[in-house]
Amino acid sequence: MYLWPLGGLAVGYGGNTFSDRVYIACMGPATAVPLSFFWMCAVLVFNDGQLRLSMSGLRLDSPDWFLFLCIVQLIGQLVNFAVNALVPCFPLDGSQILVNYLAGKQFEPERIAIWLVNCSIPPILAMCIYLLYLLFLTPSFSMLLWVGAMLISPGFCAYSLSLIHI
C-alpha cells in the first residue's frame, strides 16, 4: 500500500478468474452508492424534503451550514463513483474492470495496454482542461498541485502499463 497526501493507493491481486477480478474491482466504486444514499437522505431531511444539489445561497457560516456540508458530501460521492468506475486510468478501479474484462475476452496484453492508454488520454485531458479553467476562476496553490498531478498522470499511466500482470 502506498499513501500520498492527496489520497491513497492500494493495489492487491485477488480472485482466481477474470470475472472475479471484475467483481472485486466493481466493489470500490460500489462503496459510493450507500454513502450517496446516506447524504441524499440527509439533504432531504435538512432541506424540508426537497433534493437539492445547488449550493447557491449557502455558506459555512450560515445557519444552514450542515445542509451545505451534506450537499458537498453528496456531490463528492457522486463524482467519486463516476470517476472511479468510469475513468479507465490506472490505478482507478475502472482500469481494473477494463483490463480484466478484456483479458476475459481473450485479448492479448498488448491490445489491452493500447485500449487502456487510448481510453485514459481523453479523461486526463478533460480533467487538465477543467482544472486549468478552475485555476483561472479561483487561483490558489491547491489548484496548482492538482494541475501538476493531472499533468504527471499520463506518464504515470504509461509507466504503470508495464507493471500490469494479466
Descriptive overview:
It is built from six helices and two strands. A two-stranded antiparallel ribbon has the order 1-2. The protein has helices at 18-30, 32-46, 65-86, 93-104, 109-137, 141-161; strands spanning 2-4, 7-9. Helix 1 (18-30) packs antiparallel against helix 4 and helix 4 runs antiparallel to helix 5. It is mainly α and 166 residues long.
Number of helices: 6
- Straight-line distance between termini: 20 Å
The number of distinct β-strands equals 2
The SS-based structural class is mainly alpha
The level of helicity is 55-70%
SSE sequence, one letter per element: EEHHHHHH
**What Rg is obtained from the alpha carbons, in whole angstroms?**
19 Å
* Shape category: flat
- Given as residue ranges, the uncertain stretches (5+ residues, pLDDT < 50) are 1-9
